[in-house]
Amino acid sequence: WVEFFRGELGRAEQNLLSAQQTLEEGDVRQIVEACGQELLVAGPCFLTLLYAIRGEPERATEQERLADSVAPELFVARGFSELFGTIHGLLLREHALPLTLQRQQGRAERLMQVAEQIRHPIFHAVAEIGLGRLELVSGVREEALLRLRRGYDLYEETGAQICLAQYAGFVMEAHIEVGQIGFARELLERVRPAAAHAYARFYRPELLR
Questions:
Q1: Are residues 204 and 195 in contact, defined by beta-carbon separation less than 8 angstroms?
Q2: For residue 130, how many other CB atoms are within 10 A of its CB?
Q3: Using CA of residue 13, residue 57, residue 88, residue 33, what is the dihedral sign?
Q4: From 113, 166, 194, 198, which residue has the greatest number of CB atoms within 10 Å?
């Protein structure tokens, strides 16, 4: 994961694929299902993003399907799968494309369901951002912007720093689209300290764009 966030995608790919092989071992999988479910989907989810960034859609789709194959009763694992799926959809702007809008809607709604079941604030925050983006496309402007801001605020309140730049980019983009430049500038200044961190450089393009 560290290599991925540093932008060292080649090394990250090698280690993530190696981790996937280790998780196929029976004893290891049983232990992970008991106390580390997120590890079952983290590799495929990171690899989905990695292959999408490198312009390898077939390999990205293969990894996304692998993450989706996790048993539904493993709530934490399912949540991570839907989390990364929703982020992937936001990066690809699937909320704005008729052919993929329903798929993104399903991801964000399922993520919200898991967030409410296990009271996971990060899942909840990203679901709010994903659903807010979809609502904006459907024309529910004020409710959508409120939801986007609420999602960003909730994520910031968790104390997590590494993805703030990316989520701020999603929220700013939405406000710029509807002409609310002032709020976008305020949010840009608010997120600058977190975006300056070395581990956030993978997400800085969202702000630069």
A1: yes
A2: 30
A3: negative
A4: 166
For residue 9, give every residue at least 6 positions away whose Cβ sits within 8 Å of its Cβ, in sequence order, or none. Answer: 3, 50, 53, 54
State pLDDT tens for residues 131-181.
Answer: 999 999 988 899 999 999 999 999 999 988 878 888 999 999 999 999 999
Q: Which amino acid is present at 130?
A: G
Q: How is the chain classified by DSSP, letter by letter?
A: -HHHHHT-HHHHHHHHHHHHHHHTSHHHHHHHHHH-THHHHHHHHHHHHHHHHTT-HHHHHHHHHHHHTS-TT-HHHHHHHHHHHHHHHHHTTGGG-TTTHHHHHHHHHHHHHHHHHHT-HHHHHHHHHHHHHHHHHHT-HHHHHHHHHHHHHHHHHTT--TTHHHHHHHHHHHHHHTT-HHHHHHHHHHHHHHHTSGGGTTTHHHHH-
Question: What is the model's pLDDT at position 152?
Answer: 96
